[in-house]
Amino acid sequence: MKSRWLAQSDDCTLTLVFGGWALGDAPFRGLTGGGNILLVEGYTSLDDPLPDLARFDHIDMLAFSFGVASAAHWLECSGFRPDQLIAISGTLHPACPERGIAPDMIKATAAQLSERSFAKFCRRAGLPGEPPELDIAAARRELFAVIQRGSAPDPGFDRVWIPTNDRIIPTAAQETAWASTLARVEHVAGPHVPFLQGQSWASWVS
């Protein structure tokens, strides 16, 4: 697990983002505002330290795709609790045929991973522009770690966004996964990467 700042300011609020597999900051580049934004990614292990968060008075945590389960596992281990917890395009069961992606499909993605197959994945996800740079070996290790780690305990999400045309974690699987949650569940028109150019960070957490 690694982290990097996407934006920093003198504001005492933070958006803590657990991103998706291998996409880096690419899904979020069109979003505006936000003040302090810290991106977490790379879920081969979840015990790497984050920057000191104690100086922030308010922290919104936005978990995207495989970052949803990874964030939930990290919250259980760390004991950290954000002021608001949002899930987008993901579930607590990343390697599950009914509530995520079938493990065999994830294994096949890892086994066949190449720059060409990754570019196809990015297109299916609805990621605009060129695919991010890919470390194939690291991306494979991360996928197997996600499978091995399995489902995460529910930390109590406040809001869940489900895209209506998700071809990565199928929309129907997300709907099944969140059917009994107490979170506020909303559908958003679009693909796995549902963020639009010019949208604000606040529109996803408010």
Topology:
Blueprint: E1 2-7, E2 13-18, E3 36-41, E4 58-64, H1 67-78, E5 84-88, H2 103-111, H3 115-125, H4 136-149, E6 159-163, H5 171-177, E7 184-188, H6 202-205
Parallel strand pairs: 2-3, 2-4, 4-5, 5-6, 6-7
Antiparallel strand pairs: 1-3
Structure description:
α2 runs antiparallel to α4 (136-149). The two termini are 27 Å apart. The chain has a 7-stranded mixed beta sheet, with helices on one face. It has helices at residues 67-78, 103-111, 115-125, 136-149, 171-177, 202-205, and strands at 2-7, 13-18, 36-41, 58-64, 84-88, 159-163, 184-188. It is an alpha/beta fold.
Total beta-strand segments: 7
Shape designation? globular
Widest sheet: strand ordering? 1-3-2-4-5-6-7
Structural class: alpha/beta
Q: Major sheet, described briefly?
A: 7 strands, mixed
Low-confidence stretches: none
Radius of gyration: 16 Å
Beta-strand content estimate:
15-25%
Q: Would you tell me the overall average pLDDT? A: 96
Q: Please estimate the helix content.
A: 25-40%
Termini separation: 27 Å
List SSEs in N-to-C order. EEEEHEHHHEHEH
- Per DSSP, the total helix count is 6
